[in-house]
């Protein structure tokens, strides 16, 4: 004890013994204390990165100019109106250096070319993370107080989707995800409101189950409920993983609540043509272009056809023949919202198609299902399950109301704080992995989770995750002028008898008119300026092939003479382009020198035969429409305006604008208008 | 930290059975380190690529189709139960990285590209009887600009420039008198400068004394679009395109 005390007092004496010595020692301590701040900066993480950046550029050919552009210290992009304070560029020093394109080492990589500049938007708006932080861990992975870690590159398009509510050309994954939210009916249960207040609307057509017993059997409903993809691989209905008893009870309620429609049970009195002609069924199926919307599995096992309507590979297992006949006769009586056209088939044709579709049967499907008569308790239990599972959120079901807000709203799911999420053990603690896991296997998060199992591929799950991650709080707080609104379909509805015909033929399912409709077939908003009366009449009677390379084609409807005339007149008078003045258009017939000049321009100067066919013997352009009879199909005003600027008439067309002179365009128009085709009347043979 | 540990302990009790079922359904190979579980029951002597090589995808994303390789024996018959390991250049991910070949001798993995654009060399390795056998294939990752180019190519160019034609996607390549260059044709396209390529796209074939079958896109595509197109062509060129680099004046 004594020696320590003695040593301490001698140390005190040595340091502070006399005033001069004490002053010197205190000065040294003060100097050291003052050095703490600069030392801390000297040994900070970002300083280390700046030193290694200087080492990296020192060896390069353009070291002098790179060094000149380098500024030491903390860098900051400050954009008050966007609430951006980003110091990322303190370490990410090569983001805008074009000559560092070959550097793979982070944080010095050059940023890939994107449409936005770093100075105008900063980093975290797109990438997420904490812009103010100056250490790697805090900037990239901090999750305190609701902060979101940076977005993995896999889902980077979610960053774009915060402002861009419209479909961008450069974000296919985001666009697919958004389309799937609508196509798979996610929004029937989960409401999604865009930042501008508009709602994301579903684009699937869940069938009404009000008359389901007319259409199919209880056994089929049971098999379908147990495993929808087993019936059709392309089914969008998810699997609710129901027990046999539950599936049986639900099917019992659906059948017992179904209201019969008299016309669905009338047997057809006509014999199908197949009795005399074995290929009549497949021929009529092909001629009616059912495959434009419906898929069938071919002999090789490939599912071929469109996905607008349900797959028909096993339709014979499902649909009762009497119902099928009534449906084909007029689908709108059974389901007023169906995208299926009213074909106006003759009874003979209906019988032929019904017989053909009845052969699309899989004898193994549902063969082991035998359901006993359901007791009233079982029916009541079925109804209880339907209410609990929210079946009525998608389907119309008698005696069950459509539930409101059945599942959590997802309008800001992309900003969900991690602290509110219950992760599965062993799962990465991040929002993207949570969302992806929830989509991949919802029931893994607990047996009480109601969300069903969807059958999705890995890219589809990535796309959906991207679309959901784009729904952030930041996206909602952006200034209005930065937000690009979605372009919703208009509620355009053509009027009068023609409007009724257009609705019955479901033209909107494939064609677009005045901002509403499908994208399978051309936009017809200006069709009246484009085509000639006789051609249109003939085409509506019997559509021929205009574009040889397309698989999906216009079906043939059995329109009456008067309906055809009505529709032709309506299209010609209403769907007129203001850009085309028929009075100023070039003449339809021209002197032969002008036609010959046009022919030479067509074949030599502009080489239109690369994509179009004028002479079927020599030309092989299968990409654009065939022009052999274009003089009988299109109006000279339209042809001239089209040649001058195709995109002005149809913005999405692939034909390039060749910037033709007026003279060349006139000569080409003269040549094209001279192509009347065999018989001189065009279209119909 | 408090919240985290609280939720995870309360959750563990009831989520464990659910998690087990998740693992079972997802296939244990996804979650468990494969090496400790998989054991090769057979050995082959050759590796051949079945499908999934030479794909093009976006940086950081999984490729559309899985990579499938087949293990064969000396007679060229498929070997099932052989172990195949997948390796790749930095950042490329494999799900799973180690696979046993199935009954048809094939090993399948889903490749996730890294975050930097360019070519990713992928090696599949299997332990043969006389030593390891390996197979190399290449996948290409596109950055944003190159991907915009790919989308434009799909819309405007591949109808003529793509030698592959299918019923779903008809290409007119075979019908053209003067054959266009496929964009993977690096041997030809690498020799054409950016300026000449831009000129060809903007003004059409005749601008460089080439075929008029190539129309001008200068009034249809924006300058940024054309740059994106060129960026895509350079990215997929085979043999790879090597830019001349920046030239600096000596003081």
**Beta-strand percentage range of chain B:** 15-25%
The CATH level-2 architecture of the largest domain in chain A is identified as Orthogonal Bundle
| Secondary-structure-derived class of chain B | alpha+beta
Let me know the number of strands of chain B: 9
Q: Tell me the overall shape of chain B.
A: elongated
What is the name of the CATH topology of the largest domain in chain A?
Answer: Cytochrome Bc1 Complex, Chain D, domain 2
Number of helical regions of chain A: 32
Task: Summarize the helix and strand pattern of chain B as letters.
Answer: HHHEEEEEEEEEHHHH
What does this structure look like?
The complex is a heterodimer of chains A (685) and B (251). Chain A has 685 residues and is mainly alpha-helical. Chain A folds into 6 domains: 41 residues, no CATH class; 106 residues, no CATH class; 109 residues, Cupredoxins -  blue copper proteins (Immunoglobulin-like, Sandwich), CATH 2.60.40.420; 169 residues, Orthogonal Bundle (Cytochrome Bc1 Complex, Chain D, domain 2); 79 residues, Cytochrome Bc1 Complex, Chain D, domain 2; 92 residues, Cytochrome Bc1 Complex, Chain D, domain 2 (Orthogonal Bundle), CATH 1.10.760.10. Chain A has a two-stranded antiparallel sheet with strand order 1-2. Chain A is flat. Chain A starts with a helix and ends in a 12-residue tail after the last helix. Chain B is α+β, with helices and mostly antiparallel strands and 251 residues long. Chain B has 2 domains: 97 residues, Sandwich (Immunoglobulin-like); 93 residues, Cytochrome c-like domain (Cytochrome Bc1 Complex, Chain D, domain 2). Chain B has a 5-stranded mixed beta sheet with strand order 2-9-8-4-6. In chain B, helix 4 packs across helix 7. Chain B is elongated. The N terminus of chain B is likely disordered. At the A-B interface, helix 22 of A face helix 1, helix 4 and helix 7 of B.
